[in-house]
Amino acid sequence: MENKITGINGPITGWLDGHTYLIGLMAYPIRHSMSPTMHNNAFAKLGLNYAYLCFEVGNDKLEGAVNAIRTLDMRGSNVSMPNKKEVIKYLDKLSPASKMCDAVNTIVNDNGVLTGYTTDGIGFVQALKDENISVKDKVMTLTGAGGAATPIAVQSALDGVKEIRIFNIKDNKWPQAEKNVKTIRENTDCKVSLTDLADKDAFKKSIAESDIYCDATGVGMKPLEDMTLVEDPSWFHKDMVVFDTVYAPRTTKLMKVAQKAGVEHVFNGIGMMIEQGAAAFKLWTGKDMPTDYIRQIMF
Ligand code: NAD
Predict the structure, then answer these.
(1) The pTM of the whole model exceeds 0.80
(2) Separation in Å, CA 197 to CA 140, 171, 173, 234, 235
(3) 3, 6, 200, 286: most buried by Cβ count inside 10 Å?
C-alpha cells in the first residue's frame, strides 16, 4: 500500500513539515474562532511554512502555555479572553499600546524573548485607512471601554486623533473607562473626556460635533441585535463616519439608522477584524497578509 500523506489537493510539500513555524491562539473557550481559518489561508496563499492552531487555555494553564512558546520555539501566539491581561506577567516586553491598554492579544517570540502587542486598535485605524479615512486631527465619540474600545481609543490617540469623547454606562467597565482617560492624557496630546451614557443630551451633542462615531459596546450583536444606542437618524450628519465593531450581523441596527440618515461612511467590524489579524501576521512573518483574498474567501 502506498504510504503518502496527502492534503486536500494532493501531497503536502513545503508545508507542515519539520521546518514549520507554529503560531498559537490561547483562550478559553476558543474553538469558534475564525482566526485559524484566516491565518492558515493567508499562509497557504503566500506559501509560508507556518501553522496556526487553537489551544484551549484559561488562566490556570496560561503560565505553562506561555513558557511552551519559548520551550517549543513557537513563533508566537494570539491571546484572547480570559488571558489578555493575565498574560502580561509572563512576558518580557510590551509594545507602547499594550502597556497603555494593559492588555495583549499578540505575542512574538524573538529567540526566547516574548513581546506582547495589541493589534485591535491598529485594526480599527487600518480599516479606516483602507477606506481612505485618516483618524488624524479628527473628533471621535466612542461608546465602550472594554476589550475592543480600549485599544481603539489608545491607538487612535497614538495615531493623532484630536479628541476622544468616551461614553459608557455605569457598569463594571466604568473604572476601565476612567483608566483609559488617565492613560491617554498621560501619554498623548489627545484631548479626552468620559461621560455617563445616561446623559443623552451630551451624547447627542457629542455625536453632532464628531467626525467619527464608533460603537464598541457589542450592542447590536446577539443577544442585543435589535438594539442600538442611537435610534434617531437625525443625530448623525452625512459627512461623518459611523463604525460598529460588531461583525455579526453584517448590518447592525446602528448601521441601518446611520444609512437611513444618509451617512456615507458606515462600517461593520469585519475590516477591523481582518486588519487586526493582518497586523499580527506581519509581526510574525514580516509579510503583508493578502487581506483582499481573505475577505473574498471568508466574508
Ligand atoms: P467588553 O465586554 O469588554 O466591553 C463591552 C463594553 O460595552 C463595556 O464598556 C460595557 O460597559 C459596554 N456595554 C455593555 N452593555 C452595554 C449596554 N447595554 N449599553 C451600553 N453599553 C454597554 O466587550 P468587547 O470585547 O470590548 O467587545 C465589544 C464588541 O466589539 C463585541 O461586539 C465584539 O464582538 C466586538 N469586537 C470586534 C472586534 C473586531 O475586530 N471587529 C474585536 C474585538 C471585539
Answers:
(1) yes
(2) 15, 11, 12, 18, 15
(3) 200
Find the 172 Cα to ligand 1 centroid distance in Å.
Answer: 13
Q: What is the pLDDT of residues 258-294, one digit of tens each?
A: 999 999 999 999 999 999 999 999 999 999 999 999 9
ipTM of the predicted assembly exceeds 0.90: yes
Picking from 147, 214, 145, 207, the residue whose alpha carbon sits closest to that of residue 182 is: 145
Q: Which three cell numbers stand for residue 111?
A: 529567540
> CB of 27 within 8 A of CB of 83?
yes
Binding pocket residue ranges, ligand 1, CB within 6 Å = 120, 123, 144-149, 168-169, 171, 173, 197, 216-219, 221, 229, 245-247, 269, 272-273, 276
Report the distance separating Cα 124 and Cα 149, nearest Å: 10
